[in-house]
Amino acid sequence: MKVRTLVAVFLLCAVVVPGQEKKGYRTSPVGYSDTPVLPGQKWRVHDIARPHPAVVTPGAKPGDPPSDAIVLFDGKDLSHWTAETKHGPAAAAWKVEKGYMEIVPGSGTLVSKEKFSDIQLHIEWAAPAAITGDSQWRGNSGILIMNRYEIQVLDSYHNLTYADGQAGAIYGQWPPLVNAARKPGEWQSYDIVFEAPKFEGGRLVKPAYATVFLNGVLLHNRKEIIGRMAHRVVGTYAPHAAEEPLGLQDHDTPVRYRNIWVRRVKGYDQP
């Protein structure tokens, strides 16, 4: 049999002719228009007219950014960041090498040029391998969501400090459910879902919430945030814009960061 004839036979076998079914192939309705309306929604159960979610391609391996992520640091440069110093904004001066950036003590907190509201955040960090202090002087930094609500970064491996100031704490407010810290010098990862607070007429109408995983372990499950980060006092809310930048705190210790990406998160009632 000639090659062309073989190809034609193969294609004929591969085509599914409309109206015919493969042996063992089953079909199911793709939706309904006669089911009850869901409470609090305009959609029916299994509504055939309900819009489908956008397609997002996951990262090739765990921790890689998905297709709709905004990559704020890919190991190359600080082009997405500025520095916030006591003298005002300045060029970012943290050290970048070998795929990570490292705090240069005294150079200022890094602040993202882009602003965000509700987000999913992935960020990897490592405290210094050399131990030169204790308690809050062991690899101290912080992730400042909206540049004011802090998830603490600290070397909490066999390092005693106040519970609401250890790694994974909502700083000064809530200790993490568990201590899932790795050894100093080892890379650690945060995965954070943050719901921004809402203000109307200068008044808080909805507080912020945070869900936090450290190294794949749940630390906070939609925990309410009391207010902005504060030391030795109770943090409070003050009205601010609906979108604000992400901050990485310079706390005078050379903490390293890498693989930072953000996804904007929309609620079910948002287009």
Structure commentary:
- The protein is mainly beta and about 270 residues long.
- It has one domain (about 70-265): Exo-inulinase, domain 1 (Jelly Rolls), CATH 2.60.120.
- The protein is built from one helix and 16 strands.
- The chain has one helix at about 5-15; strands at about 70-75, 80-85, 90, 95, 100, 110-115, 120-125, 140-145, 150-155, 190-195, 200, 205, 210-215, 215-225, 245-250, 255-265.
- Strands 1, 4, 5, 7, 10, 13, 14 and 16 form an eight-stranded antiparallel beta sheet that branches. A six-stranded antiparallel beta sheet has the order 3-2-6-15-8-9, with no helix packed on it. The protein has a two-stranded antiparallel sheet with strand order 11-12.
- The longest helix is centred in the first third of the chain and has 12 residues, at about 5-15.
How many E strands? 16
The low-confidence runs, each spanning 5 or more residues with pLDDT under 50, are: 1-15
Residue share in helix: under 10%
Shape: globular
The overall number of domains is 1
Task: List the secondary-structure elements in sequence, H or E.
Answer: HEEEEEEEEEEEEEEEE
* Span of the ends, CA to CA: 57 Å
CATH class: Mainly Beta
Question: Which structural category fits the helices and strands?
Answer: mainly beta
User: Could you describe the largest sheet, including whether it forms a barrel?
Assistant: 8 strands, antiparallel
Name some characteristics of this structure:
1 helix, 8-stranded antiparallel β-sheet, globular, single chain, 6-stranded antiparallel β-sheet, Jelly Rolls
